[in-house]
# Entry
Amino acid sequence: GEDVEQSLFLSVREGDSSVINCTYTDSSSTYLYWYKQEPGAGLQLLTYIFSNMDMKQDQRLTVLLNKKDKHLSLRIADTQTGDSAIYFCAEMGAGNNRKLIWGLGTSLAVNP
Amino acid sequence: GAVVSQHPSWVICKSGTSVKIECRSLDFQATTMFWYRQFPKQSLMLMATSNEGSKATYEQGVEKDKFLINHASLTLSTLTVTSAHPEDSSFYICSALRTGGDTGELFFGEGSRLTVL
# Structure
């Protein structure tokens, strides 16, 4: 079946940039998503990118998509302690059921 | 931005009782909603896809008689955990796919934590 993989843990210093990487296997992906989950909370949609785009920027967030390599990354500029959370990568296939395939999440720790 | 509200956010119940969790899209219509279950420090597990006006589609291994889903309107889907047992304790999250807009927009509720004693 289709799969999404991400590294499980990333630690950065406050003020540095964070780059969270994700790889996926579904060549028919239509949308790719980044969600943020803080402890004990639900999921917050951070950003998403359509599969025919290479890059999307939204304030401190930059999403890069390499469709050939099936690689997605999320860059957070000027990382703050409030950015500490788990970041999930997910992809939506081309089927009508709109089902998302999820990575296991990358836990981002921001150190003062 | 689009808001999806879940209620209740936390519920504790006795074993054998049934619990209903609501998922509402507050400022948009959602023909399709999804129900997930999340175990501690794990990713989300899709339980079922809820379509307004029709039966839900359940993922393999999810008991449809145990987890009843009703999508009665374009803004409301409910998940009822029937005859709950301690192993049903989990974090249940719903998401709603905005109808008519950018079809990539999938928004999540805050989640409902169920504890079965």
